[in-house]
Amino acid sequence: MFIATNRLFVPADRADEFEAKFRDNMRTYLPGVPGLRRSTLLRPTSPDQPYVSLNEFDTEADFRAWVASDSFREAHARNKGIARHVTGNAVETFEHSEDLVLIAS
Q1: Can you give the three-state secondary structure of 55-78, one letter per residue?
Q2: Could you state, in chain order, the average pLDDT of each consecutive group of 10 residues for the chain (105 residues)?
Q3: Which segments constitute the ABM domain (predicted)?
Q4: Under DSSP, is residue 32 helix (H, G, I), strand (E, B) or coil?
């Protein structure tokens, strides 16, 4: 599994509109992306923390193909309304190493 995160810095007064637009973009552009297993938007618990977009792909090649796709370009176009809410971002990528799943009975 290959994981890509994007830390998105959004001022608190823009958070609600950012979340709504981000959610709409996720539902519009992500279904059917080859190799995409899951996409999650994590909300910060403190105003000085960023949102985190977390995307899990089968492989790095699937991620790279998505980044090069028309769907990615459309989802990230400035006129979609999300970019004006973000004051900075940082993309990080990871390979899956280990899982520990605990289920309470």
Answers
A1: EEECCHHHHHHHHCCHHHHHHCCH
A2: 95 91 90 95 94 97 95 74 73 91 82
A3: 2-94
A4: coil
